[in-house]
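Subject: sequence -> structure tokens, single chain

Hey, anyone have a minute? Need the predicted structure for the following. Not urgent.
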Amino acid sequence: MSFFAKINAKQQMGIAALIMGFSVLLSRFMGLLRDKVISWQFGASGETDLYFSAFVIPDFLNHLLAGAYVSITLIPILSKLMEKDTEDAWKFFSSVLLWASSLVLGLTIILWIFAPFFAPILAPGFTEEQIQRLITFLRIILPAQVCFIPGACFAALLYIRKKFTVPALMPLIYNGMILLCGILFPYLGLAKGMEGFCWGVFLGAFIGALYLPYLAAKSDGIRFYFTWKHAKLKQLLWLAFPLIIGQSIVVLDEQFIRIFGSLAGTGEVSLLSYARRIMMVPVGVVAQAAGVASFPFLAQLFAKNDFEAFNTTLNNAIKNTLVIVLPITLYLISVASPVLGLIFEGGQFNQQDTISASPYLQIMLIAVPFWALQQILGRAFYAMENTKTPAIVGTLITLLTVPCYFYCSSRFGGISIAIITTASIGFYAFSMFFVGRKKFINAYKGLLCLFGKNMLLNILPFLLCIIGSFWLTKIVQESFSMLVVQFLQIGISGIVYLISYLILAKFFMPQNIQLIFSPFLKKLRK
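Reply:
Had a minute. Here:
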């Protein structure tokens, strides 16, 4: 009997969240290391602006084919078919894989050919010389999408069988290849500037996002039928269609930073992207991991019509995530400047770049709890095979947001872009919470009260961190290098926050400590 079979569903979801969270943590750190190499070599320059902007069209293609939502649309239907008729389930999976692979291949070829037409549209603030360089980057990165979407189909199979290890490795290999090629290719004379990182995107997508999950699915007994037709394809399209036409602010948030950042001035795309990279670490490690881990369980409970357990699982996922994400968010806000400096400063990225990017990061970090809330609520809707509601809400907020970006980006610069992106994510999370009040009424029990209490619990540690970091800089800045000062600020502030938080939690919210040191961790260690 497997380890997962010996423990209850809540513990299974917790362990799955740990696996995915640890994977995302390593992946984010590898991503930050990659960005450190980029910032060291190129700083916040036109070359880095081009690299970040080159992802706009490939990411849009992924969204157009619901690539980011393959697991969300495929898992509920495939799970039900696996329960009823295994052979029919494999035929359905085969038809989805054939259609998805064919469509992404065809559209990639079209976009590759017409890249010179699309490049000026996605970066309206770039010069003609920059546009030509952008076309080169775009044509290298675009074929990676041919790997991502079929790879996501194979990963969905593994999620259904509650095998999280290979999906956890996929982003690690992807980021590792980008870093390796970005350093190695220029050294060997195979690429100039940031072209090596672009080639790393393609090779990382092929090895990590496609070949690895294919091997895992094959070893797990995948069966393939060359068939284009299946009765459930209509249901899949019905689920995917709102995600395809619904331009959700969650999906387009990063694209807006890249597009409108080009209007805010040279280097602003890079500074905003660097800040967003750090902001997305707690989002990925806590929020995304919780959403990914909870989704298969929520989908199964909905399929069984066990709504009581569904609401309980959703309530636990939101509560536990908020308890963990709030102190992490406030701590990172208090040490935003030294974190940016420690990770990126050096080479072509100077102290002035750190000073410029710090307020961007602090503003974006405010959105982290809202990212967490919408990640889990969105998957709760998807588990109920309701993709229309998140798509409609996201599209409406996107339509309200775009004019704000157009008006503010060239007038007020990068700071306005950071404010708008944070406000839009907060508004989206509140809207999703509001529209879900009837569907998840029992899952909302005690959430607002818990949020308020945890905010109060974190105020004192937050203030102590800010005051301590300020005076620490005053005391040691003349005795040590800036790198050491930044390291001390982050480390000592972290210790101060943790100790003060645990003391307050012990007296006022002991259940938070029980969550952090929860029983399933002991089982996992054994």
